[in-house]
Design brief:
The protein has about 400 residues and is α/β, with parallel strands linked by helices. It contains 13 helices and 14 strands. Helix 1 runs antiparallel to helix 2 and helix 12 packs across helix 13. InterPro entries: Spore_II_P. This is Stage II sporulation protein P.
Length: about 400
């Protein structure tokens, strides 16, 4: 009798779980609900489903110092996900990963060059168009009233990779726009460092193995432009993606950090670090717009959140400056849209870190792609330098 009763209870519990999962999906899809509630509820449902149906994996990923009995007690709460949500929705223990998982995450971090999703759509573009003209007004409402709406902000300015998630507590317009991105340009010493984690990136008409026509040459031009504007800038031309004479990006971000950190320590006046890339797209995609009568490669600002959808915060990719990074890219995005409508694609959010923890004002820029010409890239640097000047210098 007790066994039958327990079976009935388990079946009832399973039914409740499925009903709650269905309700969560409908709730998340419905219009008019707070983005914060939807985000937190979805996060807890995903966690509960993992603990319910993959308990072994959940046990392996338990927080450090947690006993088996504590884990089993928490597992029992998975039968009642709303109770679990009420008890611990504010907790966010980082996932514990083994060495193999770490290696896979670092490899995934290194392989970020494909900007076409599984459906063949261009990432970071709301319309999928390949070209546009400057001679149009901003296409979205950038008033603070609209930007305070999390769903509006997310859908109009961001693309979130399926590997991660973000909520209203991070994309808070008042917070991000109130953070001061101005540099102290009254003192001597360099203020900006430009470097390239992927130094071997080239363009449609690059001369093979000629750095002057690769992303490094484009970095040289951006450095020249910023210095001409009175912002002392230095350019690191180190190579971090060639190992034993062969292209190998598996540890490019770690290699870059090992060299960039000493540069920052030797130049404490540096306030801005820019990792300049070019993107990788389908061969038929041409990321170009017309600005000041010149063909200009489009760009995309890129943020890493150090958080995976599957396991939560990635503790060994810790970044204390995530909110500052998000503030910097959003302020750049809004200034770009104000000055040069159509120049930028949506800001791309992904799970990993990408060395954005080096400084609060760290920026990863995906400028153009392999299908752009060197001329289009140089024209883009003129626009980027002007936008950067307005954000970090001009009052």
């Amino acid at each position: 009798m007790d066994r039958l009763k327990n079976n009935n209870l388990r079946q009832a519990g399973t039914g409740i779980i499925f009903l709650l999962l269905a309700a969560a999906i409908l709730w998340a899809a419905a219009e008019g609900f707070s983005g914060n509630w939807r985000y937190n509820f979805q996060k807890q449902i995903l966690k509960s489903a993992e603990e319910m149906y993959m308990p072994g994996l959940s046990y392996l990923n338990r927080a450090p110092g947690k006993t088996l009995s504590q884990w089993m007690r928490e597992g029992a709460l998975c039968w009642f996900p709303l109770a679990a949500y009420a008890e611990d929705h504010a907790a966010g223990d980082p996932a514990i990963e083994d060495g193999e998982t770490l290696a896979k995450i670092l490899e995934a971090q290194a392989n970020d060059e494909n900007a076409v999703d599984e459906n063949g759509n261009l990432i970071g573009s709301d319309s999928g168009s390949e070209s546009s003209s400057q001679n149009v007004a901003p296409t979205v409402d950038m008033s603070i009233e609209k930007l305070r709406d999390f769903d509006y902000l997310l859908s109009n300015f961001y693309t979130v990779d399926s590997s991660t998630m973000i909520g209203p507590e991070q994309l808070n317009a008042d917070d991000l726009l109130s953070r001061n991105m101005k540099i102290d340009n009254t003192t001597g010493g360099p203020k900006i460092l430009i470097f390239h984690t992927h130094s071997q990136e080239e363009f449609a008409d690059s001369t093979p193995r000629d750095p002057a026509t690769s992303i490094v040459g484009i970095g040289d031009y951006l450095t020249e432009l910023l210095n001409a504007k009175g912002i002392e800038t230095i350019h690191d031309t180190g190579v971090y993606d060639i190992i034993n004479g062969k292209l190998d990006r598996s540890n490019a971000y770690e290699n870059a950090e090992a060299s960039v950190r000493p540069i920052l320590e030797a130049n404490p006046t540096i306030e801005v670090a820019i990792d300049l890339h070019r993107d990788g797209v389908a061969e038929g995609t041409h990321l170009v717009t017309e600005i000041n009568g010149k063909p200009t490669a489009k760009i995309m600002y890129f943020n890493g959140l150090s958080r995976s959808r599957a396991n939560g915060d990635i503790e060994y990719l810790y970044n204390p400056y995530i909110q500052d990074n998000l503030a910097f890219s959003l302020q750049m995005q809004l200034e770009s849209e104000t000055l040069y409508p159509g120049f930028t694609r949506h800001i791309y959010l992904r799970a990993y870190r990408y060395n954005l923890h080096l400084l609060p004002k760290s920026l990863l820029v995906e400028a153009g792609a392999q299908t752009n010409t060197v001329e289009e890239m140089r024209n883009a640097m003129e626009v980027l330098a002007d936008t950067l000047y307005h954000v970090i210098v001009e009052e």
